[in-house]
Design goal:
TIM Barrel, 10% strand, 275 residues, 7-stranded parallel β-sheet, alpha/beta, 45% helix
């Protein structure tokens, strides 16, 4: 996959993934390179998120990778399970994922994964299982207002609000600052719907200026933010040739947030959701 990402995408029938990794600022790292980068930048533990694959077989393949990597590095890695509603038995796949050490689901993006999006009947069963297991459900969320880039698929934010209201017992982690959803938390209905929702900072420098840290912190509190990078994405493509966390960490530490908030964003919230 790393040697020939476009060829692999064609082989797996994953055109959306192929477009993203061939046209965007993508970096690459196998597990050993990942660990070296973590050691270099002072990262103790990370969460490996899955991809929102278009095909069930690719999701199963990524689960096999995550199972192998967790077995090799149990002290440094946590992992999400990849899921696809067209799996022959999605709940059995999740039960197996729990056995190899997964602790959450996603990222998912139903608009890409199935023609009917959230209307595919398997999603309801998957969410019910996740709620019962107290697993966080991770979603890829794209901002509805912003610049264009390869593979961009706008996320209907009100569809998410409806979803959170229908599944109030489910914990959610929204990537990329939730596509700007925190900005709408000044609306009373939206704020109530976000009671069980967290946001990560994945790809932040490619989307927002550094004031985003203080803005979301002041809107929702430090307990709602998780430090994320979208590794191995190149977050500062004009200034770096290999992926890492040091510049993004410097941006966060220069935001002026108090030490207690930094502790929550960098560690405590992660531990609360993923152990």
């Amino acid at each position: 996959m790393i040697a020939d990402p476009l060829g692999w995408a064609r082989q797996q029938a994953e055109p959306h993934w192929g477009r993203l990794v061939s046209e965007g600022p993508q970096g690459w790292a196998d597990p050993e390179a990942l660990l070296r980068c973590m050691d270099r930048d002072g990262i103790e533990t990370i969460l490996l998120q899955a991809w929102y694959w278009e095909n069930a077989e690719t999701a199963r393949l990524q689960n096999a990778w995550h199972a192998e990597w967790l077995d090799r590095h149990p002290d440094r890695l946590r992992a999400c399970a990849a899921i696809h509603p067209d799996m022959s038995d999605p709940l059995e796949e999740l039960k197996q994922a729990a056995e190899w050490g997964a602790c959450a689901i996603g990222e998912c993006l139903p608009q890409i994964q199935t023609p009917t999006g959230w209307l595919h009947p398997a999603w309801a069963a998957i969410l019910e299982w996740a709620t019962q297991q107290d697993w966080t459900f991770c979603l890829h969320v794209t901002e509805t207002v912003g610049h264009d880039y390869p593979g961009r698929v706008d996320t209907p934010l009100m569809e998410l609000v409806d979803l959170f209201e229908q599944h109030r017992g489910q914990k959610w982690l929204l990537a990329h600052w939730g596509g700007g959803l925190p900005f709408h938390s000044l609306n009373r209905r939206v704020r109530k719907a976000l009671a069980n929702v967290w946001f990560d900072s994945a790809a932040s420098p490619l989307l927002y200026d550094s004031r985003i840290w203080r803005t979301v912190h002041d809107l929702l509190g430090p307990e709602k933010i998780l430090f994320g990078s979208d590794f191995p994405l190149l977050l500062y493509p004009s200034r770096e040739r290999s992926p890492g966390w040091s510049r993004l960490l410097q941006e966060l530490e220069s935001s002026g947030l108090p030490e207690s908030s930094l502790q929550a964003i960098l560690s405590d919230n992660f531990s609360a959701l993923f152990g």
